[in-house]
Amino acid sequence: MTEQEVFEKLIPLVREVTGARFEQIGMDSGLMEDLGAESVDLLDFTFLIEEAFGITIEADEFEQQARRRMGDVPYEKDGYLTPEALDQLRNALPEVPAECFKEGLKAIEVPGILTVGVFVHLIERKLGEEQPEADNG
Q: In this structure, which CATH number among 1.10.287.690, 1.20.140.10, 3.30.870.10, 1.10.1200.10 belongs to the domain 3-134?
């Protein structure tokens, strides 16, 4: 699927969990900040994505990836992300404006910076990983 195809298939799911109007939803729309999703909505959104696209998404997938790449370097200290963690997340989430990864960001706040584009690209990657299976359907 192309980026546009994934985005178009994702729009109804975004609307279902946020109640946002079609014209409010763009690649750079923040699910929580711009579209009003809450933490529980993100869980529902993930479930809908898994059903619609036939993929699996871990609740803290981006953080897990960052932690793995960091090795023994601490990810957070006293609830705040370390500079190294901020760098890893900035690299892992290029769809999110760099200024969102500022010093003082708490680990618990990471879901609040996720955009529609983050999920579009995550879905593209996941579908790409399962390409041999996806071609049969």
A: 1.10.1200.10
